[in-house]
Design a protein that fits this description.
single chain; about 260 residues; two-stranded antiparallel ribbon; globular
Length: about 260
Amino acid sequence: MEQKHLSNQALAVINQYLNFKIGKAVCSVPYFNNKKTGSRAALRAFIGKGSPEEIAIEVETILLKNRINRELLTDHDLKKIMTDNNLGIECSGFVYHILNAHCYSTNNDSIKKHLNFPECTGLLGKIRCSFRPAENCNVATFAHDSNSQTISSAQVRPGDIITMTNGGLEKIRDHILIIHQVDYLNGIPAKIHYSHSIAYPADGLYNTGVRQGAIEITDINQPITAQRWTEGNDQSVDLLVQRAQKSKTEIRRLRF
């Protein structure tokens, strides 16, 4: 079986979110729900759009301010401090920084040079998006036809995204996953490995955040929602699949 991955730089960013470390403590970066906090103009790390480095700086500042010894932190302490201080990453911010690292690795430039922001209108809107691209990039931005195009399961490769939009009457929030690895059997995708940031009801307050899963392609001719998804416990992945089935779920490839 052949395996293909994102660039090493992009994989490193995923690992920094998945195994975020301060002192001896390690945890996944919590999920950030901007809709719940209503933050808009704060630092990127406090609105779910920060890079691992930016989040780490703010954690260190909090520890210093509260005279907490970083070397005595437990994994749970770290997760709790981040969650209680609204330090986390939402799904599109997570994908933005991974793809930005991949873009630098493969094209030697940043993702913001290629993204269109259809929701940023007027002069002020365009200026805002130009200076704060990560903050203004959401799932709809990635899923817009000016930035990406739909592809089939048979065409999938690392760096592609899975978008869930237009949740309909149930008002399901948009969501996005990034494909970091694909396993091929005789040149045909057999398993898709993805990363994302999410909060499941069973997570409670302190167990949300970045995680990974896989989609086994059982029938290449069926939509992605009809394949076999695995991630953590069965209850969580069932909720993710239900969310995908109730949304407009597509595999998309960035045009750049």
